[in-house]
Amino acid sequence: MLESVVRRPQRLLFALIAFMVVLFFTTYLSLSSWGSEQVRTHFETLKAAFNKNATQAAVHAQNEIASTISIGGQPSQAFMDGIKTIDDLRKYAVKGEDGNLYPPTFVPSEVNKLPRAKAGFIVLVRNNELEDMRKSMRDVEDRFNRKYGYPWIFLNNEPFTEEFKQGVKKMTRSEVRFGFIGPEMWGYPDWIDQTRAAESRKKMAEEGVIYGWSESYRHMCRFQSGFFWRHNLTMDLDYYWRVEPGIQLFCDLDYDPFVFMELNDKKYGFTISLHEYVKTIPTLWDRTKEFMKMHPDYLAKDHALHFMTDEPERLLEPGYNMCHFWSNFEIADLRFWRGQKYTEYFDYLDKAGGFFYERWGDAPVHSIAAVLFLNRSQIHHFNDIGYFHGPWTHCPLNRPKFHDNGKCLCNPEDSADYNDFMCMKEWWRTSIEGDPNQRS
Ligand SMILES: *[C@@H]1O[C@H](CO)[C@@H](O)[C@H](O)[C@H]1NC(C)=O
Ligand SMILES: *[C@@H]1O[C@H](CO)[C@@H](O)[C@H](O)[C@H]1NC(C)=O
Ligand SMILES: *[C@@H]1O[C@H](CO)[C@@H](O)[C@H](O)[C@H]1NC(C)=O
């Protein structure tokens, strides 16, 4: 024995280590209040960490429990047929630090293995809107995103504060990105006469035009028209859902709206449509007519002009009825904005200066482009997404379908759908689907 240690000194080291380990455990057991029980738990944790099969089995068990995902209306096949009773589950339960046995936990977006679209939430927001932002996120996560885990992309023309970043991170388990909007996307292009822009703001302030006085509102509208879809942080996405601080969602969304868009070749989705204030866009339609004269081939074969004029057969001639999709909510295809037709249209409008000399909103700009360049089947009204953005509410009207089953929490009587300021009847006369409330 001694001789072998002398011949191989490393054996002494092994013996020493073995001795230390035994000493450590005996001390541990005698000091620990629930002794061997705790050691057992620790060993099980270790075993689970090193035994990949155990981990996989646990995931399968979780899938089993959460397999309420329905495919084509049918509940999907259970993953682990072996587990039938709560007793079967016992071996997958985990002892908590309080000593109780906890059933396997699961993160819905991880259990939901359905393929995802390349999509995310795009939010333009200021540091001082943190609390309203958190409320919006709460609704979006509860009603939809917990089950899918799409990323959040926050953009700001000022640097985000640490407080803001931490505040929104705490509202989601998804990836969160923070992007800065530089002066090339939020500032005056060199062809803009800033004196003339200031005069326009002064005039609109006197006339009481909504946000007419605000310089940053105009930069915002220009950014939302021409730049969010080519910002670095959004370039890897095909689809986006635009979310603003202070919105509310009223209904569970039990399917993936991005995948819906892809399945149906939809390019633009909205919830509320209404009339624009004439004073904010006095020349937008004229500039659009000029653009379309240069590019008559850009008009889609089955365009949706009936939404914007009573006589669609006369194309843009009858003038604009001010109907547009309210763009504070959008689920749309970024590739539509990135495409040649829209890019050229935006550039033409930008050169005309109406974002600054008038107060062109991104909503009518997006809407006109969608109506002209898309087939009407590619524009979608998300009737099933109950939505509030002050002061308007859209709440689905069909009670058996949306209310009696616990899906939505809103009052159909608050829904603005049939309000005269809205443009839903103009949309329903245009769309292929028609008024969902007239459907049986
Ligand atoms: C681990 O899982 C694989 C496949 O799931 C299986 O073939 C293998 O036998 C398992 N190993 C053990 C030790 O259970
Ligand atoms: C995007 O990234 C490129 C390369 O990293 C950089 O040159 C450019 O300034 C970035 N643009 C924005 C808007 O952040
Ligand atoms: C509109 O539909 C026609 C066929 O009716 C098709 O040729 C055209 O590409 C579609 N337009 C767009 C923008 O998808």
From TrEMBL:
Transmembrane region(s): 12-31
A single MF term (Gene Ontology): alpha-1,2-mannosyltransferase activity
GO biological process: cell wall mannoprotein biosynthetic process; protein N-linked glycosylation
Superkingdom to which the source organism belongs: Eukaryota
Keyword annotations of the record: Membrane, Transferase, Transmembrane, Transmembrane helix
Gene Ontology CC entries for this record: Golgi apparatus; membrane
Entries under InterPro entries matching the protein: Glyco_trans_15 (IPR002685), Nucleotide-diphossugar_trans (IPR029044)
Family as reported in the entry's similarity comment: Belongs to the glycosyltransferase 15 family.
PANTHER family: ALPHA-1,2 MANNOSYLTRANSFERASE KTR1 (PTHR31121:SF6)
UniProt protein name: Glycosyltransferase family 15 protein
